[in-house]
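Subgroup meeting minutes
Present: P.N., E.W., G.H.
Scribe: E.W.

1. P.N. recapped why we're keeping a running log of single-chain structure predictions: easier to compare across weeks, and new members can see raw inputs and outputs side by side.
2. G.H. added today's entry (258 aa).
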Amino acid sequence: MASSHGRFVWYELMIPDMDAAVAFYGDVVGWGAQKLDMPEMPYTLFTTDAGPIAGLMTLPQELRDQGVPPHWTGYVHVDDVDATVAKAKALGGALHIEPRDIPGVGRFAVIGDPQGAVISLFKWEDESAHPLPDQMAKGNIGWHELMAVDWEAALPFYAELFGWKKDQAVDMGPMGTYQLFGLGGNAFGGMFTKPEAVPMPFWLYYFVVGDIDAAGGRVTAGGGQVINGPMPVPGGAFILQALDPQGTMFALVGSREG
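Output recorded in log:
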């Protein structure tokens, strides 16, 4: 089995009201939910027909008091969490959560890139039990997007950590270049330099839905807000960006039917 090093393998939502989030994303994306028996820290799995795809936990009050908003985090699989943390720090990154084990699951750490965007590192305890999902299957996470302070400075950091390679570059006119990246000839994300109005760099995750217009309607009906789109992107898909009812930014990718 080929190594999953450099691939996104897990996603996590930290939010004040878990039950409300389960209802909202279940309706919008079609995810099921499975509560885990973890009395010290309530944790729920978002699921697709193929199995768990993401996790959900309460945003601690201490983080809310520090001004940390509800947010999605992506986990990138690495061959060695501790070695990758050391390399990230040597390259100017920050360590937010020290490497630690999740018994029976794997090992993780949370880092920031040199510009401040946060991303997590992960290594499955048994990688063979977790094959990579079909990127564009409904309910999966089809795209990973970095709004960077300076994408040209950001990409070498990630390339050094994860082996990511440049793919196609898309000219966005006044907004500059949208640089795709991936591994093995498969692009699974893009990055660009954020507008000045965006206060800080961050990662945005695109959840795969069917009809993009119907999904946008479900966002609004569920109390969320569509803030951009739907709009076409190269390859024939349509995307939108949105806020859930608790203020978490996320995005959707789908088709336009009819």
